[in-house]
# Entry
Amino acid sequence: MPNAWTIEQILGFAPDAAAVKAGEALATPDKWSSLGRNAFAAWGLHQGSAAQPYRSCLELARPAFHCSCPSRKIPCKHALALFLLLASHPNVFTPAQPPDWAAGWLEARRKQAENLRRKNSVWLASQNQIDPMREKRQAQRETRVASGVDELEAWLADLLQQGLAACPDHDPQFWEAQARRLIDAQAPGLARRVEALAAIALRRPAPRISMDGSGWQDQMLEALGQLALLLDAYRRLDRLPEGVQADIRSLFGWTYKRADLLNTASIRDEWLVAAQRVEVEGNNGHSLLVRRTWLWGKNTHRPALVLDYTPDGQPFEPGLAPGTCQGAGLVFYPSAAPLRALIKNRFGPAAPFERLAGLPNLDGITKTYAEALAGNPWLESWPAAVDQVTPVLVENPGSRRGNSPGFGRSAGCVIVDRDGQCLPVDGRFRESWALLAISGGRPVDLFGEWNGRDFLPLCGVADCRWYSLWREVGRHDR
Amino acid sequence: MTARVQSLEKAWAQLAKRAIVGIGRIPRSEEGNAATGLPVDGLMLAIEQNSGSDPAKALLLSAGALGVYRRAGRLPATLGSPLPKPCRMDRLAEAPPAAGRRLAGLLRENHPTEAGLQRAELLLEWLALAAGAGVRIPLALLPETLELAACRPKLESMLSGPARSTLGERGAWLAAQNPDWAFAAALENPGENWQTGTTLRRKQLLQRLRFEWPEEGLRLLSATWDQEHADQRSEFLACLETNLSMADEPFLEAALDDRAQSVRQAAAELLKKLPASRLAGRMRERADGLLVYETGRWPLQTARLAIHPPDEYDPTWERDGILKKPRAGAGERGWWLQQIIAAAPPAYWTSRWRITPEELLLRLAESEWEALLLEAFSKAARRCPNSAWIKALLDIDSERPELLEALPAGDAQAYIIAVICRRKDGRGLWIAARYRAPWSRELTGEAIEALHRHAPALNTNPADWSALRLVTQMAYFMDPDMQEYAEHWLRREAPSGSALEKTFSTLLEILDYRRKMKAEFTKAGRV
# Structure
């Protein structure tokens, strides 16, 4: 009964740094008693400051945590310590039947999973009823959006009339006002696009700026062109294919209910959890944390992106651990180029992977991107995994002494595949040196996003070891 | 660029021009999209026809379509040059995962460590432990380590010197590609790199050469010596201090005639460190007449030390680095006396007259020149370290902790232990706090007990922060295996809430951190 989780992955489940520290302090055998395990779970008792010892239990498959201490964090420091202990000293756990309190919780979880399955089938039956209120709400929304779209088109025509050269002269209010009008018109996706236009015009740094020499005017024109295509497509929404309709709706900012989705057919495969990023999103005083998990299907060779949201300050639900391979059924959000997905069910434990099983060469990357664009022209970038590419330094950074402090100038890199073809790496990629360090001039497997101009690596597998190529930058860091 | 790409870019540029200038200003004749000869032309034509009356819409939709076409059409290019040579395989193993995580925390400074832990000291210690255990820095952490070292001289000299093995082949290969990390790259073509390169690079190169291959460093320096600027000459000369030996003596003797004052001074300083050099010999000659030791004569006259400071300034002294003008407030003759005595190795006196240093210093105490000559002897003892002399000097005036560092580790620590045990006040602790090298178990034990004894004295109100800071500093040099011992003696020793309690608990935390760090390199840490 080997434990598939490594210490790094376990620490990845911790809600914050204080929990890590506390958990590590408790992860010694002498602090625990009555330790036991079976094939799916492990448990133990820890004498804390209360009269009764705290009872902690772990379910290994997902994993799931349970503890009788009053802490509200998931996992609390006791559960985390138990997990760490299991990974470092597995033989202090005696194989046994779970004690009553643990058996109770495990049984409750099993019942919960069954209930969920039953509920879904009941809900499906109820779908056939029609909700009159819903139709009215939808009609109302559509009128608002239509008027918002008309107004936006006129505004764009006005911009073009004056010429792009006049754009930086507008103060931020000009853009913000238009964005607010779009939010009022119930099209938050369009509002975000207008804010992105503002960022280009006022030359605020955007997450990815291409280094191929295109100035801000070219970027502005491209963004405006995309926006115009979107508005034009909205006018003809009903005449467009299903997938494109779904894409346009989500670009306008209308979300799908998770429950609706979970009833559609899932795609089952061995999914490699390639990378994970947590970022802050949102404004207006409510900041959200969004966790992006990129998956790569080992056999289907297709990417998937799982998004989880939580209000700032609260921990995420335990999700997938990057660097592992998990058999799962994924349900994709409807789209002409499906990417965003939800995990419907999991099969078997997660195990670390040693190879990415990606596309054989870089041509594959550009081809899949073109195919995805053909379905959804508003895609920014498309993730893909590629095997055996070598990162090469092409731009020698000059000495950065005397410049502002920071991680030094990033190296300009390209990646070269086995056929001798190369693609440039995003100029803003901060971990070029880490990429070079793990490759050492030898081919590695990479997973990243291609946006038609450059490649942004998200993770690499070198010498059968998985490395994340994103360093978590704390909120107060540079 | 191929013809197709060119026509595409031209069409795009035309659209961009019209958009930038503004539709209102484009003359009617220039409207309409340029043909690119590519399949997208059909789409562009359709767009124009469908939005005939609305030029803004036509422009934007054309831009949208052409933009998507451009992005989708980008193909991989062929790499013109051959791939660079891959790195050699590393022989050493990587550091254990737990130690690697600790290094990551130290590098990033957001590890859950306590406030007050100085990561600079701990990083140096981590590297020393790794080098001792024969393991490498984890690959993913190499760039951060090298980048930090490029800004921190102590870290840089550690990585290019004693801890070089922790970089491994991968580190040297990586460093060769970034000019900022040249200190870590393998030494190749030193002669060629010496001829080209900035002053900073050449200085780094010279320092490294002196560490690994001193003769080559000297050879390269003397080859280009005459063409260097004066400031460069004095900087490079300072590098010769590493692995200084008699082989450098002829060069330094010639440098005494240099045009620049700073260079002459620097050369003289270095030569004073070589007892066998000609300069040292000259100094001994000059010093001969200045101190005369007369043994006791019958009947029962005690020995006497006669001191005859020089009456006038001999011009030949200038070349050997003896300054004529004294510091403010000091007399001329005393100043010259001091410089000459300081330049002669102290062992000269004791071997000449066959007496112990204590005896000589005792005689010195009777003279009016005592303070001056003590200063001189201390300087001399630091330049040419001599255990007996240093101990004698410390006995007289232990306000000189820098003398301790000139002693070998065992002697220095034995001395400190002796002082701690002998004196009832906190003098021993004060000296120990300034001894910045790894402590032995015995010294750590004595220091902990002394802290325990002096805790009431340290617990002053208001708190003496400088003293308490010294106590915390000790924690970086104590033997971490004595952490439990320290815990036993010092925890709960101070009144709760006092500054002393905070100091002690910080000390214990630092010791605990270091103990865990050390343990992670052993087999137990391989989790």
